[in-house]
Amino acid sequence: xxxxxxxxxxxxxxxxxxxxxxxxxxxxxxxxxxxxxxxxxxxxxxxxxxxxxxxxxxxxxxxxxxxxxxxxxxxxxxxxxxxxxxxxxxxxxxxxxxxxxxxxxxxxxxxxxxxxxxxxxxxxxxxxxxxxxxxxxxxxxxxxxxxxxxxxxxxxxxxxxxxxxxxxxxxxxxxxxxxxxxxxxxxxxxxxxxxxxxxxxxxxxxxxxxxxxxxxxxxxxxxxxxxxxxxxxxxxxxxxxxxxxxxxxxxxxxxxxxxxxxxxxxxxxxxxxxxxxxxxxxxxxxxxxxxxxxxxxxxxxxxxxxxxxxxxxxxxxxxxxxxxxxxxxxxxxxxxxxxxxxxxxxxxxxxxxxxxxxxxxxxxxxxxxxxxxxxxxxxxxxxxxxxxxxxxxxxxxxxxxxxxxxxxxxxxxxxxxxxxx
Length: 421
Hints:
This protein is of the alpha/beta class and about 425 residues long. It is built from 11 helices and 23 strands. The chain has 2 domains: about 15-155 and about 335-395, FAD/NAD(P)-binding domain (3-Layer(bba) Sandwich); about 160-335, FAD/NAD(P)-binding domain, CATH 3.50.50. About 30% of the residues lie in helices and about 25% in strands. The strands form 6 sheets. Strands 1, 2, 3, 4, 5, 6, 21, 22 and 23 form a 9-stranded mixed sheet that branches. Strand 9, helix 5 and strand 10 form a beta-alpha-beta unit. Helix 2 (about 30-40) packs parallel to helix 10 (about 380-400) and helix 6 (about 235-240) packs antiparallel against helix 7. The chain starts with 5 loop residues before the first helix and ends with a strand.
């Protein structure tokens, strides 16, 4: 890192700034927690900035009650801490939140809550990252440090498609992030827009609570059984990929799906031409793991419909020319990364908010920039990247910072509110 003259330091550090003697981590979801815990074991100081008032806000505030982990717990644990032995194979939403809170306490991870990052930019002259944030408690702040870890993840912002007439629909419209339970929809005609894992499970939950759901299946989608002969489909695929080429494992997965679930085309669910694992690896499109929705589709309790062309005050007009009378709409249309909104001056992330370098090499950029939670491989991918980042940062931090930290931090202490060690 460049040693700066005192006049340059005076202009660099504003009266309301914080010098961070270590990485600045943006986001306190599972990815940010995993990096923080891994850095703690390396003896590297850090700060985590989190816009919400809790860790894992997606899980705590924007998930439905019946949600469980879609993969067995051994594929979802964070570094250095397995799930409790008494947890079921597929932990519930509440169990996963408890696990994350215990994880944060065990590794003494204490984020700065209520800190919304407005911008982050690398200062070429000083060789430092400058992160501007705002909070109700402390107002505008600037955090300055040698390294930046982007851990805001793939699900930072809701995605709501612009469907003509939706604003004029008189019934309730909610994104799946606002949906908790089908209890309040009992007896109501509900259109679920989206047929991913969330769309399928919300449709099933509505059914279980006595609602009358219809589910939009606009595009082709892979639906796989969650288990095959008592073994997780994901675990089986992982084992096969250790010995067989991806294209062959895809064929095995499709055959097993047809064998167990049957041909779904007659119910309005078309299978993509590209195999499920290839589709996931190349385009990040996750196959649906069936947890009971298909049985309700077969029985007619969940109606599959094509795309929506427009909404009226009380109806949805579909692309096949038919229309549905509705009381409510749930938009199970997913989430997206928000990194392009605040990270400036780097092409490491593309316009879609994902690293432009493909997995497994998308965890490290230039100038001390790192990313975690963007592998399109869920919690296991985030955990693997967190370990890589901590190991790399631990080595770099010990080599680069100790000789220069005292001088920079001393100047900063005269000008800044605090110094993070």
